Amino acid sequence: MRTIYICTDSVTGIYSGIYDAWKQAVVNRQEGCGIALKGQVEQELFCEYTEVEEDLKKAAAVDRLIHKNMGEKARRDLYYALLTEDPEKGNAVLGTMFAARSLPDSRKIMEHLSHPMVEKVFELSRAAGGEAHNYKGFLRFRELENGVLYAAIRPKAQVLPCLAPHFADRLPKENWMIHDQHHGQFAVHEAGKKWVLLQQDPEEKLEIRFQVSDAERQYARLWKGFCRAITIEERRNPACQLQHLPLRYRSEMTEFLAEEFPGVVR
């Protein structure tokens, strides 16, 4: 009988499920276990399903285990893989951890791309890392009337934990907020303090109304005017532009908005 651990779609939730699966497979020597996400379970024959609650202590224990035995690079790759929306990401991470146990040097696990689970983790990590890298350049803050810098994004992966440290390091004395509209998350930073990650209740319909400052409108007009001024119509190449700046990143970028920021409503 194979045991499937059902957990929430978060790093803490999946690591909590991996903790129980690892204990069953390694400590109790009972083979046959897997990870499934709540709301994405396709039940199979000869499987026992167990729901796992999020537990910070369990998640921290798994993180320490990975860091100690697999190294920082593998730790980062596994973490980034869990930020994606792939329903099999939990199984991929668990399978990679099992595969590392069979190597003389478990810290070289990410070099074994011939293993299907390692290959999947590598691909998921690259996708999440690439998206986070792009948003570091494409994200646009807008100054609100209260002085807070606000930015809205719609990423495929849950990249806020990757973006927030980047901007906290570069804007340590600013009050700013990044809103992940796709996943209902907020990265909030108060000037001079550490950033925090907030999760919106999925059952709660949230409508936020912000009003940008007069200075923001003026700078937006100047920036858009600069972009128009440096454009050479005869050398316009939309296909080449798409390679460097895909359409899905443009919806919240100042230079692609037609309106003059009458307000931000989400």
What count of helical segments does DSSP give? 7
Main sheet: strand order: 4-5-6-7-8
Quaternary status: single chain
CA-atom Rg in angstroms: 22 Å
Report how far apart the termini are: 47 Å
Low-confidence segments, given as residue ranges, are: 262-266
Mean pLDDT: 90
C-alpha geometry: elongated
Determine the strand fraction and express it as a percent band: 15-25%
Main sheet?
Answer: 5 strands, mixed
Number of DSSP-assigned strands: 10
Supply the number of structural domains. Answer: 2
**Helicity, as a percent range:** 40-55%
* Helix and strand composition category: alpha/beta
How would you spell out the order of helices and strands?
EHEEHHHEEHEEEEHHE
List the helices and strands and how they pair.
Elements: E1 2-7, H1 11-27, E2 33-37, E3 47-51, H2 56-81, H3 89-101, H4 116-138, E4 142-143, E5 149-153, H5 160-170, E6 176-180, E7 185-189, E8 196-199, E9 209-210, H6 214-229, H7 238-244, E10 264-265
Parallel strand pairs: 1-2, 1-3, 5-6
Antiparallel strand pairs: 4-5, 6-7, 7-8, 9-10
